[in-house]
Amino acid sequence: MSKIEQSWYKPFGLITLLLLPLSALFWIVSTFRKCLYSAKIIKAFECKTPVIVVGNISVGGNGKTPFVLWLYEYLTEQGLSVGIISRGYGGQSDNYPLLVTSVVNAQQAGDEPVLLYHRLKCPIAVGPNRQHNIDLLENNYTLDVIISDDGMQHYKMPRSIECCIVDSERRFGNGFVMPAGPLRETTKRLQNVDIVIENGGEANNSYTLKVSNLRLVNSSDDVKHTVAHAHAISAIGNPKRFENSLEAQGITLLSTHHFKDHYAYTADDFLQFGDDYIIMTEKDAVKCQSFAKPNWYYLPVDAQPTDSVINKLNSLLKEKGILNGL
Question: What EC number(s) are associated with this protein in UniProt (predicted)?
Fold first, then answer.
């Protein structure tokens, strides 16, 4: 994590002060752009399939991907045919939009879409143009609903439901928009989304989900194992949550190593560890499949929303006609 990112979650300091003018400019531009869409001076594109956006208002890991995994499975349990679109951050392909398949790797599509496909084996379209992603899915599949993994601030894309995920531990940092703070939009935006879900929050009066850690899986054979000690490697927004979950399982961490979110690993990054055991996140593991050793493991996670989240989601699905009142 860079010094700027560290400053987001610390008391007001010099770095924050120096970056405030840029944050003011960011806020002015983003607010003006949003107003143009609200006034329909700039119009959203049209699509025939309802879109559910799972996003956030802050930068970094909030538990969005585990919720997308859960949401896909929940919607399919309701009898709906579901596809997913993603920006595919970190991926570099010669052609977009790209349909994720078993032969598409994280270098092409990005780590999160490959993780989603590995788990779900469902229609996933990746690319910087979300309209083209939706068109690709609609031209190749008959879908009842499309989940947009991120894209809450992409106002050109129409959406039926917005689900905003908030990290209950880090929340909104110092409360400033980028680059002085971690926010893409101010917290006022939360008043306009359909449901705000706190990852790890207390149930009380809010909508919450818990991210549960499954047993370690070997990076090369997908078999579940138990490991006593290992180096923890991660390239995610909130590595401390990952490391705490390992220690909670009784694993002794020989060391911890943090890379930039969506970092593209190479085999050279692991030379320092020799033949020691390594544990990484599932998102990291999909980028290391070609050179993973037999003693490298990853920790899958699943989201478990509370009944209040499920009931609210059901109400929204019926209200928007996605479940047709069933």
Answer: 2.7.1.130
Across 249-258, average pLDDT: 94
Residue 324 has a CB neighbour count (10 Å cut-off) of 9
Q: Sorting pLDDT into bands at 50, 70 and 90, what band is 61?
A: confident
What is the SS3 assignment for 245?
Answer: helix
Binding residues for ATP: 58-65
> Helix 64-77 vs helix 307-319: angle between axes, to the nearest 10 degrees?
60
Distance CA 206, CA 127 (A): 34
Sequence-distant (6+) residues with CB within 8 A of 291 are 266, 267, 270
For the stretch 68-81, pLDDT in tens is 999 999 999 999 99
**Residue 220 pLDDT grade (very low, low, confident, very high; cuts 50, 70, 90):** low
Q: Are 253 and 246 in contact (CB under 8 A)?
A: yes
DSSP reduced 3-state for 111: helix
Q: Are 60 and 211 in contact (CB under 8 A)?
A: no
Going along the chain, which residue ranges are E strands?
51-55, 82-86, 98-99, 124-126, 145-149, 161-167, 195-199, 207-213, 216-218, 224-225, 229-234, 252-258, 278-281, 296-299, 301-305
Cβ proximity of 197 and 309 under 8 Å? yes
Give the tens place of pLDDT for each residue, 116-134.
999 999 999 999 999 999 9
| Cβ neighbour number for residue 203 with a 10 Å cutoff | 13
Q: What is the pTM of this model?
A: 0.92
Question: What CA–CA distance (Å, rounded) separates 53 from 46?
Answer: 15
Residue with structure tokens 């995610």?
236
Q: How many CA atoms lie within 13 A of 52 on its CB side?
A: 27
Q: What angle do CA 86, 114, 313 make, to 5 degrees?
A: 50
Overall residue count recorded for the chain in this entry: 326
**Which residues does the annotation place in the binding site?**
58-65
